[in-house]
Predict the 3D structure of the following.
Amino acid sequence: MVAALALALATGCDDISAPPPPPTSAGTTTATTAPATHVTARAEPVVDDLHSPWGLARLPDGRFLVTLRDDARLLVVDPDARSVTTVSGPGAVQLQQQTKPAGEGGLLGVAVEPGGTTPGEYTVFLYRTGADDNGVVRARLSLDPRGQVTPRGPMLGTLTTVLHGIHKAGNHDGGRLAFGPDGDLYVTTGDAGNRPDAQDKASLNGKILRITPDGAPAPGNPFPGSPVWSWGHRNVQGIGWDAQGRMFASEFGQDTWDELNRIVPGGNYGWPTVEGKAKGTPSALPDGGPSVVDGFVQPLVTWPTDQASPSGLAVTSDAVYLAALRGQRLWRVPLTGDGSVGTPQALLTDQGRLRAVVADPDGTLWVLTNNTDGRGTPRSGDDRLLHVVVTPG
């Protein structure tokens, strides 16, 4: 338990802008069997002058989709051409009309449905804050072949709502979307400032949800007829899977501890009863998963909130990477084959606030800075999409 849970009720935001402390090489881990392998990271800016970027998704052809939270716009970024193109079409007009940015809400996560067979035609899912709630919408995105420029440009078709009724607020809106190895869509939500919702399985808030592309609860969910995959979350904004299908998530703490969690179906992650580790004797899940104390799944790693405030997350063959906002760094957490973790290492400590990270098939990373979101200190050219090469060091 954490005594500081009662503090900062009025502000309660995920990352209060402040100069970060000097980088350290370790968080508090619950598993130490993995070696503390250190690496070096080299970042190259690819595009700049992005205003409050939030979501980042890789297209099969190597281009990227980027959402602008406050502008409610969807962009296509071609890293080879170093070009940025605004998506137009009826769906783009609807996004502008229906999205109501405020605080941490706006146009947030983006995901591309896998398995498309028509070149240049994709089904795109977007998490947006509307007039009454947060929800997920779907539309067809049509793109010209890479390298070809036409007057029409990328077009987004009419939006279809696939999920609604997620409470919105100025803070704790969740917003990350990702397709899992099972082909289902995972949606992260925050508690929207109403803490009891995280422990209420009838509420969509404070959860990780698993739905079909049509918005129905996915078959095999732990609670029949419910989209809830895991619960007891404060504000998850990063999810990803390793090659063995293990799911990881980054979570904002309130005042004391941010978390990296391994997500198990039906798992209760403790908020608001617990922030960080629960006190008590841990017991391991039967499948060798994370430990549990008093029914609450324990984090793999915790950080003081001024060193992390982790948003986006990416998983590679050997590590989990977390983009830190208030902490202003990219955390690398080494992984071993059994899913245990090593000592975290701070990378990219000179880029300011980091919002999203995506892993490329070649093992490199793509990272969005987030210094223009109202809490950072913008520098000339902010915000940027960075291409990051990680090498053993």
Residues 359 and 365 are 5 Å apart (CA to CA).
